[in-house]
Amino acid sequence: MILALFSIFAIYVFSICLLVYGFCKVKKYQKSDVEPKTSFTIIVPFRNEEENLPNLLKSFSKLNYSSNLFEVILVDDSSSEKFQSSIVNYQLSIIDNIRVSNSPKKDAITTAMQHVKTDWVITTDADCIVSENWLLTFDNYIQENKVSMLAGAVTYECENSFLDHFQQLDLTSLQGATIGSFGINKGFMCNGANFAYKKTLFESLNGFSGNDKIASGDDVFLLQKAIEKFPNEVQYLKAEEAIVVTKPTENWKTLFYQRVRWAAKTSSYKSTFGKFLGLIVFFGNFSFVIGFFLLLFGILSYPLFVLFAFFKFAIDFILLSITNKFLTQIRIKSLLLSSLLYPFFSSTVALYSLFGSYEWKGRRFSK
After folding, report:
1. Whole-model pTM over 0.85
2. 169 burial type by CB count under 10 A (0-12 exposed, 13-18 middle, 19+ buried)
3. Which residues are paired to 91 by β-bridges?
4. For residues 90 and 60, is the Cβ–Cβ distance under 8 A?
């Protein structure tokens, strides 16, 4: 048992080292002075977001980008009250979602695509804020590189609570794995809150066909389909000015269900590397949990467990620190306590996602 735990741990350490290497290989991008040319449609699916949407729309108004080169489509997914937008300085339309599958968000994007007239689509979430050079940075990269799909970074705007700090650590680890995997040409994950692609690419991939029975994964499955067909045209935009800021969840229950929703799609990945890494990360965290209980029952010695924990936290810290430095100027707080709790939390999420149902946006979804 102990030998098996340390064998799993060795593979885990190697995998995280590989991601650290990949993260460093992806070069930071700085926007240039080229004249903006790319036309974008920003698609925002939403459901009961009357508190958050005005802030997002306000950030669109501050974009350093010609209003002639972008438009915004809000897709209302059966909100309890109709959202009334204020006057904005860009083209804005609000349409109703047409539900045809088990995935409201995929349906929302598919519905919006019927109204898209621009070359590029970029998706974000209603609880996000974009920076003034968000579109400009995407445009500059698109002009300078042959790409059909671009994944961007997402970070949290945290307040001073342990729940927020814990979520920052969790999201930072996901972003680190995302960027690292692109750096070793094994990209398998992205975040739909900051995700751009050509309309023609979406159509050539037949949209979300084949994955519409899974409630989540509008971003990941589309990315994996694109990489399978056009590997050289799918890239990661590692640019600080293109980072989107979102809000952490307000309570532990919502956080748990959100992570279950994310984890539930892992078994359906097309990416072999994505499945492998998911398993390794799960077993790496689960081995820590098992090691803790072996320590309690006197099967594993205290020095061995401390050594195991030290090396795990040390290698995790390297990936977390370089990723967090890119994402935000604010250091991760409550790092030790969050790191101790995280293996228990993530292992529970992973196991529950195999068979449990979850709630999201007032709806219940089952595996």
Report:
1. yes
2. buried
3. 71
4. yes
* Per-residue buried b or exposed e for 239-271, using 16+ beta carbons within 10 Å of the residue's own CB: bbbbbbbbbbbeeeeebbbbbbbbbbbbebbbb
138 contacts 238 by C-beta, under 8 angstroms? no
Task: Look up residue 298 and give its DSSP letter.
Answer: T
Q: What is the SS3 string spanning 229-290?
A: HCHHHEEECCCHHHCEEECCCCCHHHHHHHHHHHHCCHHHCCCHHHHHHHHHHHHHHHHHHH
Q: How many C-beta atoms lie closer than 10 Å to residue 60's C-beta?
A: 22
Give the whole-angstrom CA distance, residue 219 versus residue 244.
15
Going from the C-alpha of 110 to that of each of 83, 107, 234, 277, the distances in angstroms are 20, 5, 20, 30
Which residues face 42 on adjacent strands?
72, 122
Tens of pLDDT, residue by residue over 32-68, are 889 999 999 999 999 999 999 999 999 999 999 999 9
Residue 200's contacts (CB-CB under 8 Å, 6 or more residues apart) are: 119, 148
Residues of the chain with pLDDT under 50: none
Q: Look at residue 367 in the predicted model and tell me its pLDDT.
A: 56
* CA dist., res. 44 & res. 95, Å (int): 10
335-353 vs 272-296: helix axis angle to the nearest 10?
Answer: 110
How far apart CA 281 and CA 287 sit, in angstroms, is 10
